[in-house]
Amino acid sequence: MSREYAPYGLWESPITADAIAEDSVSMSDIFVDPVTKDIYYIEQRASEGGRYVLLSNQTQNEVFAKDFNVRTRVHEYGGAAAIAYNGTVYSSNFADFLVYAAKDGKIKPITPEDPKKIYRYADFSVHPVHTDLLVAVLEDHTHDTPQTVRSSLCVINSAATTVTSLVCTENAQREFYAAPTFSPSGDRLAWQFWEHPDMPWEGGRLYVADVHYNPNTHTLSLSNTKMVAGSASTISACYPLWASNDKLLFTSDEGEEGNRFANLWECTQACTKPVLSSVVQQDFCMPPWTLGNYPFAFLDDSGTKAICVAWRGGRSVLYVVDITTGSYKEIKDESFDFVVVEHVRRVSDYTFVFTGLRSNAPGAAMLCTLIGPSFMPDFQVLRSTASTSAAPFPEGIISLPIPLELKLAGDNIVYAVYYAPNNPAYAGSSIPNEKPPCVLGVHGGPTGLETQNLNWLKQYFTSRGYAWLDINYSGSSCYGRTYVERLKGNWGIIDVSDCIEAVQSPELRSLIDTKRTAIRGGSSGGYTVLASISLASSAASKTKFFASATSNFGISNLELLADDTHKFELMYMTKLLGGTKEEIPHVYHDRSPVYFSARIETPLLVLQGNDDEVVPPAQSWTIIDGVIKNKGHVEAHFFDGEQHGWRTSETIKKAIEFEREWYEKSMVRASVSK
């Protein structure tokens, strides 16, 4: 078949916004009943308004009713909405914020009625002896402002439908809890704790306490509470998991300055120490933006070996770690082509499940058994997120990620991922010597990572003749704590300069048309977008470096955000900017794009959810008003019913098409017409 030629950015593609939106399914969690060994997973379906659906692997049917939404808004980003124990499945329901239990087809609420939706529950742990008692993270929104929401650990009595407090202090408005987990006997409880201004990956601390059961009141209480790992602001300890009644494993980034990576650690009554014999310069976890995303699980009943996920070059790798010797072995196999592995859970000896994402195929819920002394993996797909209704896309249409290490100013290494224009129907451009326009993606967080898994939005553009470039700028996660802390005090400066310098690097100048590069991002990535086209400190704003820009629910006013974002991130900016709004008001002002909208010459597209409580709509209104007043070029679309990110098929489709049309108008067709 002969291949065509057409200008880059104007190729026709079978990857349509309809195809992406209608069958958009993501695997958000997988978990195992530790008694029955039954497996369950949670899918998010855009075609059902973004509803989270809990499915039994055994029956392939929904566990709860068709209108049940397995989602929680604890910490706003949720996670750990459901668990199973001895045939009973417990889950938060987004519709009414109650917790429900399902067994043998019978479903009942196990928390008291809450018509005002004051209480939010997540991250459940069932007591192994008194199995009608569950410990959970509780958020109390009685006084529903970011400054007054109270966090604690509670006990849910599923038989009596009551909730009692377990761990709560007078400083509950500043505190956070996660990952409560009982020891095998139920005699001890471990959990993670942190408080403002820390995020859990900055100063997460682990606590352990003795558990006491009162048979007269059928309640639990704690004593002898001790902090066993982590330190406020300086060391992060996350993901506690009991290997035995006396040994707790977790991840920690404690270490020598310049060589700090989140590795596996253990705590016994005798000592707390690293599991590995020497530091592995890879992070063994991602920052816990959501609850319950465990990066390791035990492979045997005695807890002597664990399967662990680490991050190398922006991709997941699997290791079997021998906890007794401190050695580790990488799982290498041609069938292992996952670039993102999450939600690792034990099933039985040397068998575990996880959610996996590939670069060249849809994601899936996976089962793996390690065979023999060499740990040969046998992978089995339990459930794929591939479309069951849409026609398959042509073979060879996927543009594969190319990881790059870019040496920028000051010999700083910055990590990027490049996707070349790719469509089997086209051999190239019809314009001699044309280089492709480029979309530069800025991830959110900002303590986050743009991973290398298949993303149909990126393929939507690369199949139309665009290049796509993701920048894991200074401050991104999974490259060690030193890399993360490059952003301290420098947000709005170094993230912007990394993006600009990356495009100007010799590697990229040879691949893309730097004068036709659009910058786009969401949330904090949207802030970097707005900063790059407005702030006086940005070289891009002085020269109109970017040809086009898209802000998805981006931050424009740091002063306003410091007051009205949600509790989880209320003090996040303190370290990113170098102090509070009261301590350094000039910094909050000088790095707020809204005050410099007169400088915006780059055509700007703004997309915003009207129900967003993380980055409220006012953040978009104000920057739009400023651009309009100064006769700039801006287009905006607000979506009813959408929160922080797009969940419904209709919004996903519209957002994709708005963005493509914007780039065509602002930088592709205008260039071709010349």
From TrEMBL:
Keywords: Hydrolase
Region forming the signal peptide: none
Presence of keyword Hydrolase: yes
Species, as recorded: Suillus fuscotomentosus
Record-given protein name: Alpha/Beta hydrolase protein
Gene Ontology biological process terms in this record: proteolysis
A Pfam cross-reference name: Peptidase_S9
Annotated Peptidase S9 prolyl oligopeptidase catalytic domain residues: 454-666
Gene3D superfamilies: alpha/beta hydrolase
GO-annotated molecular function: serine-type peptidase activity
